[in-house]
Amino acid sequence: MIDTMDSAVFGTLSLAFGLGLLVGLQRERAGSALGGIRTFPLISLLGAVCGLLAGRWGGLVVAAGFLGVASVALLANLDKFHHSEEITGQTTEVAALLIFAAGALLTTEYRSAAIVVGGLTAVLLYLKQPMHAFAGRLTECDIQAIMRFAIVSLIVLPLLPNAEFGPYRVLNPHEIWWMVVLIVGIGLAGYVSYRIFGRRSGVLLSGILGGLVSSTATTVAYARRVRESPPVASLSAIIIVIASTIAAGRVIVEVAIVAPRVLSAVVLPLAAFLVLMMVISVVMICSVHRDGNDMPEQANPAELKSALIFGALYAVVIFATAAAKDYFGDRALYGLAAISGVVDVDAITLSTARLAAADRLGADTTWRVILTAMLTNLLFKTGVAWALGSTRLLLRLVLPIAATLAGGLALLLAWPQT
């Protein structure tokens, strides 16, 4: 009979073997001279065994095992250096050291972290060519913007005071900047996807990426394209609606991150609105048959100037929201949402969600204010499409936008109070 302790040990060794096998399989396929499908499972098992022995003999056992693996990698590199003048990368060697450490980490209370490290190692090794291609497509301006985002998220954010200031105690520098990092991070993820898939990404993917980066910017770009080339009005209308649909999905994600405690109370009507927009998008896609479409050049959303502008806008909106509720009650928030929605839906979404999480705003009012802002923003984008595009583009948008607005108004009026 295997007792509980032996079962735990065998489980740890099995996980270590599996992680090593996963990384080793990738290295074997890549033709690594240092190690492959047999070597890496042995390295991860060695890490797990050293970790288990460290419980009795101390952490020096793990250190000795790590130095042993490092020595083997060093000797292998010396041999390569003597037999070849070509300078090669050290990815496999670093992966070997990391998989040993992951094996040792499996023996601690951080087992989940060890599994994640092993899985990410295998994925990073596998994605060598796509990652190199993506890096090659980045411009110097893109690199600078990404570095600035790293500065504002990893350096500035931890330094800001985490305390409330102002008359209504709603202006928290740390939380305000965290909202900036959240929104810019979502936009940056869409921009990275755009760089990976390229400009010719297809109608559906163009709309999705446009919604992740900025649905308003996507509307402006495709409206201008219609003015230059009127025949693309139908495709541009589809992409604008898809981008707006993704923007509606972004709102739900933002509420889930900022106010998870109230998500269950506000998600159903917002999800119903999202489903309505998805259905309209599918109908529009099915009505036009086309393989792909060139996506206009997108601006990098990680620019420091735009981050500062959003931070200031968010601070103004959350202060105005608290003041409007204090002076005029909840009904005043709808007018504020209508005004804010023209400029930016994210700011009013995050501010109302934060107030709801602090029990300063009811769940019913929260989702209705957010939906009001989304409807106003949709109207604004339709006007932009008409002004910068053409009447032909407006006609393509009238029915889907009218259906969306009707559905949103029906939710506002008919959804029961909770």
What would you note in describing this structure?
There is one protein chain. The protein is mainly alpha-helical and 418 residues long. It has helices spanning 4-30, 39-57, 60-83, 91-105, 111-126, 128-137, 140-159, 173-197, 203-213, 215-228, 233-258, 263-287, 304-328, 332-343, 345-357, 363-388, 391-414. α2 packs antiparallel against α3 (60-83), α7 (140-159) runs antiparallel to α8 (173-197) and α8 (173-197) packs across α13 (304-328). The radius of gyration is 27 Å and the shape is globular.
Features:
single chain; 418 residues; mainly alpha; globular
Q: Layout of helices and strands, plus pairs?
A:
Elements: H1 4-30, H2 39-57, H3 60-83, H4 91-105, H5 111-126, H6 128-137, H7 140-159, H8 173-197, H9 203-213, H10 215-228, H11 233-258, H12 263-287, H13 304-328, H14 332-343, H15 345-357, H16 363-388, H17 391-414
